[in-house]
């Protein structure tokens, strides 16, 4: 992907040729292969979860021999997991919804008024196969980000409601617990 070029290509030479044809200057660091970016994002998420599982198992073994080490190990692991997961979601959103991400995911492919849904789907599939669009990867990344954003929003909303109930009505922990 090159910023300003609203189509994808399979090779570096093809996308550079498109940019030159459109008169777009190619900035340093471009073109970016969005498939590699999407793959790196998925691997980052996988390894974050895998390492958490391995460290959790190791922590349980260590807990039998040195409980104080377990306390520190679990705290550091939890903090590391939280920071990595938060950055994973933030960077996933940046990469997916950047110029290159939206082009690669096929968001900028436009359906013509006279084109049927079947013809448009066929054209998108052909574009994905012949030009390197990442339709499935982009849809997957967008779906994951939507789910995580919705969960995060609902959690923040629940905290806000709880905070209002505590502040306005003077509720305590027991009264809030009775609501659940």
Could you characterize the architecture of this molecule?
Helices cover 75% and strands 0% of the residues. The protein has one domain (12-147). The longest helix is centred in the C-terminal third of the chain and has 35 residues, at 135-169. The mean pLDDT is 82. It has 180 residues and is mainly α. α2 (34-65) packs antiparallel against α3 (67-97) and α3 (67-97) crosses α6. The radius of gyration is 23 Å and the shape is extended. The protein has 7 helices and no strands. The N and C termini lie far apart (49 Å).
Largest sheet: none
SSE order: HHHHHHH
Helix content: over 70%
Enumerate how many helices there are, as a single number: 7
Radius of gyration: 23 Å
What's the mean pLDDT score? 82
Write down the oligomeric state.
single chain
**Backbone structural class:** mainly alpha
Overall 3D form: extended
Distance between the termini: 49 Å
Which ranges are low-confidence, i.e. pLDDT below 50, for 5 or more consecutive residues? none
Number of E-type strands: 0
Give the strand content.
under 5%
> How many domains?
1
What structural keywords apply?
180 residues, mainly alpha, 7 helices
In short:
The chain has 180 residues and is mostly helical.
Topology:
Blueprint: H1 12-22, H2 34-65, H3 67-97, H4 99-104, H5 117-131, H6 135-169, H7 173-177
Helix pairs in contact: 2-3, 3-6
């Amino acid at each position: 992907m090159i910023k300003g070029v609203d189509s994808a290509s399979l090779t570096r030479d093809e996308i550079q040729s498109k940019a030159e044809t459109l008169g777009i200057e190619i900035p340093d660091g471009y073109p970016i292969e969005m498939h590699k970016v999407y793959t790196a994002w998925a691997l980052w998420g996988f390894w974050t979860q895998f390492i958490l599982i391995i460290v959790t198992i190791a922590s349980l073994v260590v807990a039998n021999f040195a409980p104080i080490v377990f306390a520190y190990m679990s705290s550091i692991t939890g903090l590391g997991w939280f920071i990595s997961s938060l950055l994973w979601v933030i960077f996933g959103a940046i990469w997916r919804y950047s110029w290159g991400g939206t082009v690669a995911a096929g968001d900028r492919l436009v359906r013509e008024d006279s084109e049927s849904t079947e013809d448009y789907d066929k054209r998108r599939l052909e574009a994905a196969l012949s030009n390197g669009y990442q339709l499935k990867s982009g849809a997957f990344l967008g779906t994951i980000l939507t789910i995580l954003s919705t969960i995060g929003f609902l959690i923040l909303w629940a905290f806000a409601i709880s905070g209002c109930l505590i502040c306005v009505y003077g509720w305590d922990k027991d009264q809030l617990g009775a609501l659940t």
